[in-house]
Amino acid sequence: MIVSPQKFAYVRAFTVRLAPLLLAVSLAACASSSIDATQALNPDPPSKMFADGDAYMARGKFEDAATKFEALDREHPYSPEARRAIVMAAYAYYRAGKTPEAVATAERYVALHPGTKEAPLAHHIIASSYFDEMKGPNRDQTPTRKALEQLKILKSRYPDSEYAVNADNRIRIAEDNLAASEMEVGRYYLKRRNYVAAINRFKSVVSDYQTTAHVEEALARLTECYMALGITNEAQNAAAILGHNYPDSKWYKDSYALLQSGGLAPREDGGSWLSKAWKVVPKFGLGSG
Fold first, then answer.
1. Are residues 196 and 268 located together in one domain of the fold?
2. How many CA atoms lie within 13 A of 283 on its CB side?
3. Which of 124, 237, 9 has its CA nearest to residue 132?
4. CB under 8 Å, gap of 24 or more: what pairs does 240-248 form?
5. Is the Cα torsion angle 280, 284, 285, 288 positive or negative in sign?
């Protein structure tokens, strides 16, 4: 196609006028990319990032706080603020209701920095996350067991921490929930005359959860199961331990009557597994009602 001299002159003039504009746009884009790259290579100092995270926390913007704390750890991994930023990110996730993120971040902290000043807080975050997810006795008790594990770590490793002081009541609640769950399953087996399976559940209560309110019934149910199986020495022993520790319990009265119906009486057997496993219930136990 042949372009006329007039049209060629017009196109050339337009191109000359457009070139400065294209150059300006290109320079602006380059400048913006340069600023972004500079910010990526030179983030805010760790003290400012930590302060920004704290400010988000104070305003209730917990997810933003977690993001800021994690950015601090990522951008300044060797700074003094980075270690605390991890546990603060876990706490921010917990406050935001993001349980999996809170647990994962707190677990990363205790794996990287065990025994440090913030370690009790990390264990407290993990314990609290699981404690909040505890379900009733007839539901899955995995969160309860994990909460109890972390609470016991707090008590044993960091007995002087503020979080250990508040762990006692939660430990009692968690153990009571686990004992109640074992009793639920034990009663289920007992009703179906699966006495061996029932005994295993009731054994768990009297062995592992002796300070809970469920231990009296567990001892009585053991008496009932052993009598049904004809293992009278264990039935007598279970009733004897029940009567020794809870002489006024209605469960002891029932167990005593059951033994009498078979011409027996409570009698402790020092060689029994129950006598070896049993400990005197501490005075701070929940006891009988």
1. yes
2. 0
3. 124
4. 240/266, 240/267, 240/268, 240/269, 241/268, 241/274, 241/275, 241/278, 242/216, 242/266, 244/268, 245/280, 245/281, 246/216, 246/219, 246/287, 246/288, 248/288
5. positive
Shared domain check, 157 and 54: yes
The tens digit of pLDDT for each residue in 184-238 reads 999 999 999 999 999 999 999 999 998 899 999 999 999 999 999 999 999 999 9
Chain position carrying tokens 């930590």: 50
- From CA 72, how far away is CA 143, in angstroms rounded? 31
For 129, the domain range is 46-165
- Say if CB 222 and CB 214 are below 8 A apart: no
C-alpha angle with apex 266: 232 to 274, nearest 5 degrees?
70
Calpha distance 69→287 (Å, rounded)? 46
Q: Which residues contact 87 (CB under 8 A, 6 or more apart)?
A: 105, 106, 109, 118, 121, 122, 125
104 and 51 assigned to the same domain:
yes
Question: DSSP H helical segments within 96-166, as ranges?
Answer: 99-112, 119-131, 142-157, 162-165
In a domain, 253, yes or no: yes
Q: Global pTM?
A: 0.79
Per-residue pLDDT of 254-267, as tens digits, reads 999 999 999 999 99
Q: Which structure tokens are listed for 160? A: 């002087």
- Which has more confidence, 4 or 224? 224
Structure tokens at 167: 């762990």
